[in-house]
Amino acid sequence: MWDDDDEREDGDDESFDPEAHQRKLEALPIYQKADEILELTQRIVDTLEKDNPHAEIHSSMMLEDAMIIPAKIAGAEAMDDYILKMENATLIKIHARSLLTQTASLKYLELVEMQYLQLLRDELDAFRFLFKEWVKSFETGTTKEGDGWGLFVPDPD
């Protein structure tokens, strides 16, 4: 479970092609949507007043959430283990929901015009549908052993 052994189980020593992996990742609709969300979030944050303490906190949190989403998609796509994919998916959901919550806070504080916040909310809603389809594609039989917590699959006793 905690083994960080980099050896492939099948004994195949083929070299990993990071450029091919990156092209495959960038072709995924969910990754493309995550990039769009990151770009839109950056644009919204850029409109916030820099000297407003509320704006500074919200912009930091929103950028963190928006940056983590594509990174976790990349992480999940880089592995075959169901549990690790689901752990990444859980973090993606948490950060997407946090970003959605931030839009409500910005609306309440009247720091950003509602039409920009609605754009982000619409993109997050579209992302949610892509996310659900993406998670369905995870193969459940790829887990080597439990995660030690019994969260996504029961641990062997």
How would you describe this protein?
This protein is an all-alpha fold and 157 residues long. The protein has one domain (27-136): de novo design (two linked rop proteins). It contains five helices and no strands. It has helices at residues 18-27, 29-47, 53-77, 82-109, 114-136. α4 runs antiparallel to α5 (114-136). The radius of gyration is 18 Å and the shape is elongated. The mean pLDDT is 87.
Q: Brief description of this entry?
A:
The protein has 5 helices and no strands.
Structural class: mainly alpha
Helix content: 55-70%
Identify the CATH homologous superfamily: 23S rRNA-intervening sequence
In terms of DSSP E residues, the strand content is under 5%
CATH topology: de novo design (two linked rop proteins)
User: What are the low-pLDDT stretches, counting only 5+ consecutive residues below 50?
Assistant: none
Strand tally: 0
Morphology call? elongated
CATH class: Mainly Alpha
Into how many domains do the coordinates divide? 1
Mean pLDDT: 87
Largest sheet: none
Kindly provide the radius of gyration, computed on alpha-carbon positions and rounded to a whole number of angstroms: 18 Å
CATH architecture assignment: Up-down Bundle
Distance between the termini: 14 Å
Order of helices and strands: HHHHH
Count every helix, treating DSSP H or I runs of 4 or more residues as helices: 5
Record keyword descriptors for this entry:
157 residues, mainly alpha, de novo design (two linked rop proteins), 5 helices
Secondary structure layout:
Blueprint (H helix, E strand, L loop, with lengths): L17 H10 L1 H19 L5 H25 L4 H28 L4 H23 L21
